[in-house]
Write a structure and sequence with these properties.
Number of helices: 5
Distance between the termini: 38 Å
Helix content: 25-40%
Strand order of the largest sheet: 1-5-4-3-2
Radius of gyration: 17 Å
CATH topology: Alpha-D-Glucose-1,6-Bisphosphate, Chain A, domain 4
Structural class: alpha+beta
Number of domains: 1
CATH architecture: 2-Layer Sandwich
Length: 192
């Protein structure tokens, strides 16, 4: 499965890629081993974004030392080791407290979803053998289900897109350091 099979069109897209001097199997393991607390930019931006949710009493469990891929706001739709992992779901991310609870959807249900007031989001991490190493890429696509939601999300996207891109670069860097045997990123310890 790839993003075209889940969300072939989109209103908003970000793409990042990095070449890593390691085979796909090593990069795959490193991608799955990267923890939230090893991603200081991600932790800081996540804390700012989700402060209203945390203050409302929801989401306190999100700060544990979990793998980054397990903490994404959209579920895994497909995993093909060591080639790709695809995530997707519907969100109301622009709402201060996160909006309504998202329904669990498989790839076909997400593709067919048309209920107004939501954005469909899909993201992947793809590993491609390249020049004796691996190109690790990530793409995020977002499609609003109606014009009013597109306007609301568009305003929100102006503010979060730079942070979203920074998070992806930080993840790619952390994976590269881990896969190439470099020193792991600084780890933030979050008290309970």
């Amino acid at each position: 499965m790839d993003l075209d099979g889940v969300l072939p069109t989109s209103h908003y897209v970000t793409r990042q890629a990095r070449w890593i001097d390691a085979p796909p199997e090593v990069v795959w393991d490193a991608l799955h081993d990267v923890k939230l607390t090893g991603l200081p930019v991600t932790m800081a931006l996540g804390a700012v974004r989700f402060l209203p949710v945390v203050l409302s009493g929801k989401g306190l469990g999100q700060l544990h030392d979990r793998p980054f891929l397990e903490a994404l706001p959209i579920p895994t739709l497909s995993s093909s080791p060591p080639e790709s992992v695809v995530f997707g779901g519907v969100l109301q991310a622009w709402r201060l407290r996160g909006g309504e609870e998202s329904p669990e959807l498989d790839a076909d249900e997400l593709h067919a979803w048309i209920q107004p007031g939501w954005v469909k989001a899909a993201m992947d991490f793809r590993l491609t053998p390249s020049r004796g190493g691996t190109e690790l890429s990530s793409e995020t696509r977002v499609l609003a289900t109606d014009p009013a939601t597109r306007r609301r999300f568009g305003f929100y996207w102006l503010f979060v897109q730079p942070g979203s891109t920074a998070i992806r670069w930080e993840v790619l860097t952390a994976v590269q350091l881990r896969a190439e045997g470099g020193h792991p990123p600084v780890v933030l310890r979050v008290g309970r």
